[in-house]
Amino acid sequence: MKAFAKRILAVSLLSVFAMNAEAATVSLGYGNTDLVANPSGGRFTDLYNFVLTGLSSIDYTVTVFNENLSVYTAPTFTTISIFKFQDGAAGFNYGLFDAANNKILDPSALSTGTYTLKVSGITTGVYGGKYSLDASVVSLPVPEPETSLMLLLGLVSIGTLVYRKNNVVNKI
What we know:
- The protein is rod-shaped and about 105 Å long.
- The longest helix has 27 residues.
- It has two domains: about 50 residues, no CATH class; about 120 residues, Jelly Rolls.
- It is about 25% helix and about 45% strand.
- The protein contains two helices and nine strands; from the N terminus they run H-E-E-E-E-E-E-E-E-E-H.
- By secondary structure, the protein is an alpha+beta fold.
- This is FxDxF family PEP-CTERM protein.
- Keywords: Signal.
């Protein structure tokens, strides 16, 4: 019975410490803003720099908008690309890079440091290209030692009371 009680105590301690971790979500502030890239057409590179002060993960989405306008010139309609990126791999690229300009393939566990979201490409539209960037950073949970210590002291106190109660019952 004592071995079972020790196992229960160990499992409850581990679960309490694991649940004690807290995480915070922070938006980079770029939101779903439509960003016009290089209105004159041609190559562009947009850099969004940020600094992480602890273990974090980042989730980002880049959406491309191609907008066309149909103009009637007798006897047919002509399509004009208002916002468009060149087709192919060079037309539109984006990624997350560290301070040494290495591409981050797994943004789920980033350490402390400076990072850059880089969006680049070639525009072919009359007014360049248009895209939306949505990014959020989530700091990974880190247990607070003060809270864990208070929980541990509480469990030790309860264990001591149970132990004393069992010893008093056994002596009678």
